[in-house]
Amino acid sequence: xxxxxxxxxxxxxxxxxxxxxxxxxxxxxxxxxxxxxxxxxxxxxxxxxxxxxxxxxxxxxxxxxxxxxxxxxxxxxxxxxxxxxxxxxxxxxxxxxxxxxxxxxxxxxxxxxxxxxxxxxxxxxxxxxxxxxxxxxxxxxxxxxxxxxxxxxxxxxxxxxx
Length: 162
Hints:
Layout: H1 10-25, E1 26-27, E2 30-31, H2 32-38, H3 42-87, H4 91-120, H5 124-156
Antiparallel strand pairs: 1-2
Helix pairs in contact: 1-5, 2-3, 2-5, 3-4, 3-5, 4-5
């Protein structure tokens, strides 16, 4: 039972926290500490510009070459996890869905921001502001996602007599 259950397994929560920590630390490949230092240092600001443009070109190229196929695959997998998890009550699928579904929103946000950086050629303070704002919203999604998963897990594993 310990290895097969999603929410009861400690490794699910360790993985959840680890994934959200990594996702919120980097915005389009730029570490948050560089974004903070770029506000004070023109040299670091140039490095942020370089990193953001390199990563946004890479993300944009991947999106244009395989974006549709990847979106179809992700949609298929998420809908399969949803059906298995919420309709057939397979807890591992429910746990995976509650972790991966919000990550698709982060992925979509990253693609849109990358396309915007490429089309409008943002640089300097404007780019730093965009990256900092995007990170803030990624953190909001992460916190809400983890709280929702925690509440859902508590509700499904309630020890109260019903």
